[in-house]
Amino acid sequence: MSKKIFIDGLEVLVTRKRIKRMNMRVRDPEGDITISVPYFTSDRDIIAFVRSKRDWIDRAVSRVKARAASHPEPVSREEKEARRADLKRRIAERLPEIERRTGLRCNGWTVRDMHTRWGSCNTRTHHVNFSLMLATRSDIELDYVILHELVHTVVPGHGADFYALMDRFMPGWKKVRKDLKY
Ligand SMILES: [Zn+2]
Predict the structure, then answer these.
(1) How far is the CA of 134 from the centre of ligand 1 (A)?
(2) CATH number of the domain that 175 lies in?
(3) Global pTM?
(4) With 90 as the cut, is the pLDDT of residue 23 above it?
(5) 77-133 pLDDT, tens per residue?
(6) What per-residue confidence (pLDDT) applies to 75?
(7) 123 lies in which domain range?
(8) By CB distance 3.0 to 4.6 Å, which of 66, 104, 135, 158 could disulfide with 87?
(9) Ligand 1 centre and the CA of 106: distance in Å?
(10) How far is CA 61 from CA 15, 58, 64, 111, 167, in A?
(11) Domain co-membership, 170 together with 96
(12) 45 and 131: one domain?
C-alpha cells in the first residue's frame, strides 16, 4: 500500500511495510523519491524525516538526473565502447588497490555486457567478470562489486563467512548494496 504525499514541494511515494526504520531512496532515472516506513508511522513523523533529509534528497535527485541526462538509453555502439573503455580504466585503477588492501587476488578480469548481474567470479579459476552496467555507477558502488567478487575467490557462496569478510573490508557495504539492488 503506497500513497503519494507532497512535502515542501517534493512528491514522495510512501509505502508502509513490516520494517523497523524509515528508509528513503531516490530512484533512477527520473529521481523519484520513495520512502518505506513502518506500518504505524504518522504522516507528521514522515514529514519530519523527509525535512531532516532535504539536503541529501536534493543532492541525490540532481545526481540521478545528471546521470540519466549524460547517459540516455538506449546507447549506441560507440557509446558502449566509450563506457567500456572508461570502466576498464576505473577497474584497472581500483582493483589492484583493493587487492593490496585485502590480500585477496583474482586471476584476471573481463568487462562483459551482462544485464542481470553486476559481477561474477569463477570460483575454480578465480577469473572475475564485471558488468558494463557498472560504467554508470559511482566509485563506491564499483568498489563494492570488486570487493564482492574478490571475496568469492576465497568464499564461494553468500554465507556467514562471506559477510564477515565484507564487514571487515567494507563496513558500510549494506547501504551500497541497497543502492545497487544487488
Ligand atoms: Zn556473490
Answers:
(1) 15
(2) 3.30.2010.10
(3) 0.61
(4) yes
(5) 898 999 999 999 999 999 999 999 999 999 999 999 988 899 999 999 999 999 999
(6) 79
(7) 77-180
(8) 135
(9) 14
(10) 19, 5, 5, 28, 29
(11) yes
(12) no
